Structure formats: C-alpha cells, structure tokens
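Progress report, Aim 2. The chain analyzed during this reporting quarter is listed below.
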Amino acid sequence: MFALAIGSLRRRAGAFTASFLALFLGSTIIMAFASMLDTAASGGATGEAQSTLVIMANVVGGWGLLLVVFAVTSTLTLSVRQRASEIALLKSVGATPAQLARMIVGEAAALAVAAALLAIVPGMVAGRGVLGLLHDTGQVPPEIGHSFGPVALSMGIGITTVSATAAALITARRATRAGVADSMRSAAVDTGRLSRKRIVFAVLFLLLALDEAVITVTLMDGKGSDVMATSGQADILAAIGLALLAPAIMRRATALLGRPLRAFGAAGELAAATMRRRTGALASAVTPVILFVGTAVGTLYLQATENAAMEAAGLAKTAEQKSIETLNFVVIGMVVLFTAIMLVNTLVAATAHRRREFGQTRLAGATPRQVLASVALESAVLTVTGVACGTVASVFTIVPFGLARRDSAVPAGDAWTYLAVVALAAALTGATTWAATRRAIRVPAVEAALR
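Predicted structure tokens for the chain:
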C-alpha cells in the first residue's frame, strides 16, 4: 500500500498542497522556538537571559505547537474528505479498511518527513529572528549567539511526523470504517457530523478555558501582572474548543441564515443549497478564522488592559513585565501569520476542489457572475460565524483579566483594535475565496464538469 500512497501523491499533488504547507509551517515554527533551548544550553546564557530563552521556547513554542497540531489535523481531515469518492471507489473494488488506512497514513508520513526536512533552513532563519527580537528589547545580551542543534531538529522532525501520523490515523479510521454505500453518500453530501470523541475534546477544551477564567477572577485577583499567567491562555483553549464544534456551528448558522440568503435571488438560493451539502468543508474553512480572531483579540486587549493598569498605578515596567509583553506580541505575530496563511491555504484548497461543482452548476444554467456571487455569500457567512465564535473565545481572557486587574469587565483599548482584526479576517476570507473561485471558473464548464 506504500506504492499506492506514492501513486496517490503523484496523481493528486494539488489536493495535498494544503496539508504539506500546514506541516511545513508547523515544523518551521516548532524548530524556530525549540532552537531557543539549544541557544540557552550552548550559547552561554545565564540568569535572566537563560530564563527568557526557556520561557520563550516553552510558552510561545508550546502554544504554537498546540495550534500547529490542530491545524495539521484540520487540513489532513479536509484532504481526506475531498477524496471521499476515491476512497469509496477503492472500497468497491476490494480495498480493505486496513489497506486504505495504511495508504492514508503513508501519505501523511511522506508529506511530514518532506515538509520537516525542507523546514530546517527556514526554522534556522526564524529562530535567528526571534533571538534578534530578544536582543533588540535587551532581554538577552547581544553576545549570545543563535544555536540550532539537536533539540530543534528532533522536536521539529519528530513532532511533525508524529502529529501528522496521529492525525492521519484518526482521519483514516473515520474514513474507512463506513461501508461502500455510506461512503458514496458521504462523498455526495458532506454533512460533517460530529463524532463522540470530537464532542468530548471540545467540551474538555471549553471546560479548561472556563477553569482558567474562574481561577483568574478568584485565586489570581489582586496578584498584579501575574494574572496574565492564567488568563492569557484561556482564549486559545476556548478557540480550539469552539473550532472542534465547527461542523455543528456551521449547520446551525446555515439553518439560521438560509432564509436571509435567499433574499439575494438566484445567488442566495445557490449559496444556501450548497452550504447545506458542504458543512464539513465549511467547518474546516471557518476553523482558522476562529483561531485568528479569538487569539488576536484576546491577547491584544489583554496587553492593552495590562498597560492601562500599570499606567494608572504609576509604575514602570520591570524586565520581567517587558519580557511578558514581548511574549504576547510574539504570540500575536505568530498566530496572525500562521492562521492567516492557513486561512488562505485552506480556502484555496477547498475552492479549487469545487471546480467540477462549479462546472456542473454553470451547465445547469448559472452564470459565472452568479457562481461568484454565491461563493461571496458563503464567504460572508464564514466570516460572520468565525468572527462571532472568535469573539466569544476572546471573552474567556478579556473579561476575567479585566475584573482581576482593573475591577472592570470592559477592557482597555479602543474599538479600532477589534475592528482591525475583524477587517483583516474578512479581507483574507473574501479576497482569497473570490480569487480562487474566479480562477476555477475560467476553465470551460464542460471541461470542468468532466474532471
């Protein structure tokens, strides 16, 4: 089945691009921050400098790792979901579930190893950039040079391969245990039903976020800047929990917005009908929006509230507080970059896969303008849903931290911060979907429908 996996990779190179890019970016981020541990061990760092390097690797790298693994799982799931008809056909000609599972896992392992090896040089460059930021802020002496050694390599290659293999095993089990008839129906109608395990993990992440929020407003109340240690991670936990529930959320959003969409005429009718059939794919597309909005809004307002509290107390920031502020902005930068690329990557992959669907729709009488308009409406629903869920996730950080730090549930900072995040999410979603759809419909309808 390994030969079958290689053959599948060659035939469907475009379909695996999203998964490969997720693995490549994830491995780059992991190596970059893991190299801080190599630098701390062999660069001669001591005291505060060593502590800063270790914190940067463990805190930022740890949360980055969690986001990376989640994104890799999401993109691999989307890739396998797009191949539902191919998997159903293989079942119909005698392929066993074990053979199909080995094929899917073999593909993921091959992609992971290739992505991790190609990420070594970018990981070195990114690691130097992180250390340069610490040099510029005076948290690490300039004489401490960057070191990229066994920790970065082993974590980058090992974690990328293990996470991809684990995600492929989970996805393969779900894709291969259904019968041929059920697989054919799933290929035609992608309802994206929630599994019991997915619900359990979603509830677990949301409970962890709630626990962090409760600890913030009770045990950490009045502890000054130390409150950030518990509240800062609540938005990420909540965003992951809501993203795990994305299929159910998108089904509900589609049902609620179906009637308003029909007010837009033929394009609205087409959008509503398509969204009912593609809940699973829409859930994969909305996931990076939720992560982006939840983490960016939560962290930006957390730092704004902290700065306001320090200013009101007339206190100057200590070296540790400057380090925490740097960490927060590095987290924001990492999340913005990673989720923005994953958002574009996922939307391009999902839209390109619909080329045949677009061709059939045009043959049925829809004009290219109506196809573009229907996809624009889908994009609007994705944006609204993702922003709403991300905003809810950010509340798990913003409100508890404000209560503990300033006795106010209203965060410091102005509305323009929130509007900027929302505008960026909307621009990325809308522009990417429009460009990918426009490219897809350039292919003649008959040719696209036969692919």
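The CA atoms of residues 233 and 397 lie 7 Å apart. Residues 190-450 form one domain. These observations will guide the mutagenesis work planned for the next reporting period.
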